[in-house]
Amino acid sequence: MNHLLLADDDPNIRALVRYVMTREGYRVHEAQDGAEAVKVMERSPIDIAIIDVMMPHMDGFELCEHIRQQYDIPIILLTAKDQLSDKEQGYLRGTDDYVTKPFEPEELLFRVKALFRRYNRPADDIIRMHRITIDRKNVEVTDGQSLILLPMKEFELLAQLAQYPGRLFSREELIRLVWGQDYEGDDNTVNVHINRLRQRFADYADDFVIQTVRGIGYKIVVRDK
């Protein structure tokens, strides 16, 4: 599932875009200004950013520049202005595309999909941890010789951690990313699935380990070789 940052101080715009993108299978992370968007990106993996230009605290141009310096993701700027100078400023700061308000939600969706096609490289779906290869597109894990079969939630949890080696995820965050916002169970589910993954990959401890950070959550550490 692709994660989308939506930064806009207009709650009506956020509600409209959230509805359309969620319906298409994207997970939407919202921020009402640029400063909040920076914090969202620090705690959640984001695959694409949709940013309003006119926001308090940190405007869209500044946020765009910050994202371009820190992350390699596509960016779409939203603006009520249709002036060449604003578009030039946006492209100079690093945006990939520009949508002028008011806009049709379907047009924004088309642009999001087009940017994903441009950014998507074959390697993006392949995660390697020495002998272990995770193929996110085909939902497969192999050790170079044989296929390792995993239940879907174990696969998604492993892929989520492995995509960001060394990054600490809280249990609550993993629940949100893997099981979804509407999951009604508790975070002990994460502990159970982590223990199962450790048992399944006990023979590959020379390749990677899943570390517990007491009281917070988990991270994958890939061994140096």
TrEMBL record:
It comes from the Bacteria. Residues 124-222 form the OmpR/PhoB-type domain. It holds the Pfam family Response_reg. One of its GO terms (biological process) is regulation of DNA-templated transcription. PROSITE patterns: OMPR_PHOB, RESPONSE_REGULATORY. Keywords: Activator, Cytoplasm, DNA-binding, Phosphoprotein, Transcription, Transcription regulation, Two-component regulatory system, Virulence. Residues 124-222 bind DNA. Member of the two-component regulatory system HssS/HssR involved in intracellular heme homeostasis and tempering of staphylococcal virulence. Phosphorylated HssR binds to a direct repeat sequence within hrtAB promoter and activates the expression of hrtAB, an efflux pump, in response to extracellular heme, hemin, hemoglobin or blood. This is Heme response regulator HssR. The lineage of its organism: Bacteria, Bacillati, Bacillota, Bacilli, Bacillales.
